[in-house]
Amino acid sequence: MSYSLSPYLVDLNKLNGAIGAQDDKLRRMIGGRFKTRLAHDDEYFSDQIEEGCPTRYEAVRAVINGGPFDESYSFQYGYAFQTICEFYGRFLYNNHFSPFRGAWLETVDEGLAKLGIKAVAVTDFMYGSVPSPLPRPDHLPCYGEWTPAQCAEALAQWEATTQEQRDSLDSEVLEAVESCIEWTREAQNKPGWGVAAFHF
């Protein structure tokens, strides 16, 4: 089975602040910008919607309003939160993580650790979940964040490595690590921003 990671550069305070904000303007803006996408998502989940699952737009409304949530369809609120993340943020280059199989994220984390980069881990995105009060999805999507402070520390740890250390890694692992470091560098270029990612 293949998995995928969708990382975003985003203002984490603004993203998390959208939960329960009861911001009708934000809801309408998301509905307008992603109208076609929301319709496509509803078509994909049409069987579940027929059984009572909220539409994607209804799920976005629930997230922004802070509820109510139907925990039988908790995955839909995770996808709705991703829609809000995409509204506020910018998708990051992730060719090394989409798709991937097996223990690839753990392998990349081993590469990070071997270089002494311990401030971040890509498995943070696999084992985490959407913020409270959103119901935790039974399976996917999983969710995680790298805060601005974590990004700054990871970048400093990378810059302290030597070329010899980097060359000691498998080339594919090194490329994936470099991709992660680029995410942290982009975050540093936008004060207060971090990395949010969804694992499917």
Describe this structure in words.
This is DUF7691 domain-containing protein. Residues 1-198 form the DUF7691 domain. It comes from Actinomadura vinacea. InterPro entries: DUF7691 (IPR056108). With 200 residues, this protein is α+β, with helices and mostly antiparallel strands. The chain contains eleven helices and six strands. The chain has one domain (2-199). Helix 5 crosses helix 6 (74-88) and helix 9 crosses helix 11. The longest helix has 18 residues, at 171-188. The mean pLDDT is 96.
Percent strand equals 5-15%
Question: Which structural category fits the helices and strands?
Answer: alpha+beta
Query: What strand line-up does the widest sheet have?
Result: 3-2-6-5
Number of domains: 1
What letter string, H or E per element, gives the SSE order? EEHHHHHHEEHHEHHHE
Tell how many strands the DSSP assignment holds.
6
Low-confidence stretches: none
Q: Provide the helix percentage.
A: 40-55%
Q: Which oligomerization state do the chains in this entry correspond to?
A: single chain
Mean pLDDT: 96
Shape: elongated
Could you describe the largest sheet, including whether it forms a barrel? 4 strands, antiparallel
InterPro entries: DUF7691
Pfam families: DUF7691
Organism: Actinomadura vinacea
Protein name: DUF7691 domain-containing protein
